[in-house]
Design the sequence.
């Protein structure tokens, strides 16, 4: 019994040493494999990921991509357009989806089609107008063929007729003895601007106007100008002599 116990203890210690050696060999092997795996990822893995990203980008931009664009562009917007003009043509500009085709309509009739640049800007020169009111609208069509809603209407009046201007008081070529004189007259409406030697006169809704003008001694040349929204002008002149 005494001989058996020491032998059993010696055998257990030997087994422990062998187990420790096996663990060390496994640890070394796992460490080597780990380093090898990391090296493989660095050498082959990163270029593979980069190539995969590039391939996905090419597929996205490819005309044969399965991703279909069904979203319509926003409606075009016109830049500032004059309310009225005395010229038969105007230049227009505005904004739309970049590189979209912009269709321009005048009074519901297609006038022309232009293309927005990469910033979304479009320009059309010499748009012909009809006498009277003209309604401008536009719509955009993107590269996928999607069409926007019609834009907001923009109204432009083409009027090349000078406004009416009548001077009812005073008569011209007369002599007065007061330093101030009241000038009265009539034009088309309150939308017409009336000036007396450059000074703005008050125009009522029915077109009547009046202005109290201060005279200088001797001959006074007084120019009355009526100008409508389109820029048409009618001029008349009064000569009043102020006797001091």
Sequence:
């Amino acid at each position: 019994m005494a001989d058996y116990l020491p032998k059993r203890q010696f055998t257990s210690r030997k087994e422990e040493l062998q187990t420790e050696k096996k663990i060390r060999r496994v640890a070394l092997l796992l460490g080597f494999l780990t380093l090898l795996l990391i090296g493989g990822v660095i050498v082959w893995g990163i270029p593979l990921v980069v190539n995969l990203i590039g391939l996905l980008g090419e597929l996205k931009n490819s005309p044969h991509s399965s991703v279909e664009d069904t979203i319509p562009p926003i409606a075009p917007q016109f830049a500032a357009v004059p309310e009225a003009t005395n010229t038969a043509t105007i230049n227009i500009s505005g904004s739309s989806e970049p590189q979209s085709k912009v269709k321009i309509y005048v009074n519901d009739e297609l006038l022309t089609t232009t293309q927005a640049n990469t910033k979304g800007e479009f320009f059309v020169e010499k748009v012909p107008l009809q006498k009277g009111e003209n309604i401008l609208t536009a719509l955009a069509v993107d590269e996928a063929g999607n069409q926007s809603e019609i834009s907001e209407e923009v109204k432009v009046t083409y009027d090349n007729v000078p406004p009416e201007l009548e001077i009812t008081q005073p008569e011209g070529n007369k002599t007065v003895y007061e330093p101030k004189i009241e000038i009265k007259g009539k034009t088309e409406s309150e939308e017409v601007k009336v000036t007396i030697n450059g000074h703005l006169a008050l125009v009522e809704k029915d077109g009547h106007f009046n202005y109290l003008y201060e005279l200088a001694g001797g001959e006074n040349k007084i120019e009355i100008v009526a100008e409508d929204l389109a820029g048409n002008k009618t001029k008349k002149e009064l000569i009043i002599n102020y006797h001091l």
User: Anything to note?
Assistant: The chain has a mean pLDDT of 83. The first strand starts at residue 77 and ends at 78. DSSP finds one helix and 17 strands in the chain. The domain at 165-242 is CATH 2.60.40.10 (Immunoglobulin-like).
